[in-house]
Write a structure and sequence with these properties.
elongated; 0% strand; mainly alpha
Amino acid sequence: MDDKEVLARIGHLVAEEHELREQHLRRTLSTVDERERLQQLEVALDQCWDLLRQRRARLQVGQNPDEAHVRPASQVENYLQ
């Protein structure tokens, strides 16, 4: 996945997140469903941002950005911010 594809994926995930939040405000989505899907979206977004950072870092030091890979959720979710 190149940078453009990663950014497009991020855009789609953010749009879905906004839609879920709107559904919650309209009370057309159950709280349990919303929480589960929002958690999945948060993890997927963290993984996408991590992949984008990896790609850019590899490019900056002269390495092939295509060798970057999606890291497991357990790894990206434990990063300190």
